[in-house]
Design goal:
By secondary structure, the chain is of the alpha+beta class. It is about 50% helix and about 15% strand.
C-alpha cells in the first residue's frame, strides 16, 4: 500500500494535469453547422462562441424565422461537438490513473 505522502503527491499531480487540460480546452475549436452549412458557428471546446458565419442568401426579411432556427441549430451542434471534444481531452488525463470504477473526474 502506498503511503499517505505518495497518495497526496499523486493527487497534486492529477490536479495539475486537470488544470492544464482545462486551460487547453479553450484552444480547441469546433464548428457547428445547420442548413447544409448555410449557418456555421465556431466555438471552443469550453463552449465559448468564437464566430458565426451566415450565408448571404439568408439575409432577407422573409427568411428571418428560418435564420433564427438555423442559428439555434448550429449553436446546439457546436455545443455538442464542444462537449465531445472536452470529454475526449479529459478522458486522456484519467487514463492510467488508479481510480475506482465509476469515479468521475474532475473532483
Amino acid at each position: 500500500m502506498k503511503s499517505l505522502d505518495d497518495i497526496m503527491a499523486m493527487a497534486q499531480n492529477v490536479q495539475a494535469e486537470l488544470t492544464k487540460a482545462q486551460a487547453n480546452l479553450d484552444t480547441i475549436e469546433v464548428e457547428g453547422a445547420s442548413g447544409g452549412g448555410l449557418v456555421r458557428i465556431t466555438a471552443s471546446a469550453k463552449g465559448r462562441v468564437i464566430g458565426i458565419e451566415i450565408d448571404p442568401s439568408l439575409l432577407q426579411a422573409s427568411e428571418k424565422q428560418m435564420l433564427e432556427d438555423l442559428v439555434v441549430a448550429a449553436f446546439n451542434d457546436a455545443r455538442a461537438k464542444a462537449d465531445t471534444a472536452s470529454n475526449t481531452e479529459m478522458s486522456k488525463i484519467s487514463q492510467g490513473l488508479p481510480v475506482p470504477p465509476g469515479f468521475k473526474l474532475p473532483f
